Predict the structure of DUF7587 domain-containing protein.
Amino acid sequence: LTIIEFIKNAIIGYSKTIKSPDEQSLIHHFLRFFDEEIQKIIQNNVHAAGDDALSWKVADECYKEAISPSGILNADRYFNDVKNSLPRRRADSVSGNQDHVFNDKRKREWIDSWVTILNRAPSGLTLFYPRTSNDIDLTNPKTIPPYLFRVFDMKSSGNNDEEVMASSRHASQVRTSGVNDLLGMEDVKATRLLSYHIGHKWRRKYDDQDNLVSWTSSLLYAVQYATYRKHHPRLKNADINICMVQTSQFPQGQFVRDIKLLNKYLAIASDLGGKVWSIFDLRLSKPEFYNGEYFSQGVLNHAGRSCVVSLEQLEDAGIFKLYPALEDPSDDDGVVRNALKVLDLRQEWSDEQTTTENDVPYALSIARKCFPGFNEYDIACILLAFKHRELSGK
């Protein structure tokens, strides 16, 4: 089965789920109209290793091109072509409002088809995909920070390595025909799973149902959590890793902020009460403990859009020389802490700090040695921003 056959079969399979024959026919028209563009996308991705990797890379790229206003697979190109080819009298007779409503609905169907293909592609991903216009808005790219971080080691849940981050549900190899996207689930089920992932993940009781993967926008928190993992569950620095991804390289809906989901399901959590509500309430009512958490779902193929660095590499590059307080996650009583330690450090560093003559060279050295492929000045600024520093006008 060639990749173009996989794509066509997947779209045809999706079209069969649509009840309206006219809508089914339109999906086929889209496929024929964009055939050349899809072929070009396939050719541009043939360097991918293996058909499984190629299928999701192609589907990923097609989705981006379909959802982007300037994308080569954007449905407006089809509708403009159709409108221009109509006799002028017929085109003028079509109400502008009717035309707009019709086109928006069909554009949605076209994008839906690519989301479905992505979710069915071997070793593919699961996007957060709002089903209605009243759902959470994921269209503004500015709501996602440019970089996200994930700490992982051999004892982390799911499958985690230098190419893939996969949820514990995916790693459990329990395959069901159920919905993978949290936003597509029944509200009560989604609320309970979100509560489990945030508050009871450490128990691993429902890991075969949990399709979420956690990320943080705070490198400070990531480094602190990595040092915490050194003590709990006692690992070597070389075995604890931080994955950094550039979010602009991923499609819309790949990541979503935890607060968006918590607010979406807040009323359901309130009705459920008990432990579910207490977890929601704790996360939303204690902003001082917020560490910029974001989620992905299912499998995230991050190779080529990320870098992975070990705690040992960070130490060798000078992270603990730049920030000696990060090396020991213990509090004043000698108790190893995680969130409380980060809170203490933020409070301590919130007052304006002096930048020594060694701080900037250390930060740049860490950026170059540990985060290849990323802008070293961006990384250095992120590192220096752990503390509140005076900006120089020079």
Remarks:
- The longest strand covers residues 147-152.
- The longest helix spans residues 96-120.
- The chain has two domains: 3-120, 143-393.
- The CA atoms of residues 317 and 369 lie 7 Å apart.
